């Protein structure tokens, strides 16, 4: 005798809109027809755009600490693209980009407190 939550009922996924049971082929087709995963969410895209604008401001105002901080964030976010499009060495390149972005972040904080 098993404990079964009614709101986690997996049988609902096995019925169509009219309540007719689906075949295994129809269930597989629905799973494959799902929308592909996005590389960046909308919030991440907005963050990248805003950081690029703040980076441009820091660059024009010669605020190197702000520019390094923004560059650190941009490199950290763009590592997903490197991992996705570099097939053989994607994970290694993404790890190197992540380490470099942390080094830039520490450098930006050091520059901030030195001034």
Structure description:
- With 115 residues, the chain is mostly helical.
- It has four helices and no strands.
- Helix 2 (42-60) packs antiparallel against helix 3 (64-85) and helix 3 (64-85) runs antiparallel to helix 4.
- Which ranges are low-confidence, i.e. pLDDT below 50, for 5 or more consecutive residues? none
Strand content: under 5%
* Structural class by secondary-structure content: mainly alpha
Order of helices and strands: HHHH
Radius of gyration: 23 Å
Main pleated-sheet profile: none
Shape: elongated
Helix count, DSSP H or I runs of 4 or more residues: 4
Fraction in helix: 55-70%
Number of strands: 0
Head-to-tail CA distance between termini: 69 Å
Average pLDDT works out at: 84
Topology:
Blueprint: H1 24-32, H2 42-60, H3 64-85, H4 90-114
Helix pairs in contact: 2-3, 3-4
Keywords:
single chain, 115 residues, mainly alpha, 4 helices
What can be said about this structure in brief?
The protein has 115 residues and is an all-alpha fold. It has helices at residues 24-32, 42-60, 64-85, 90-114.
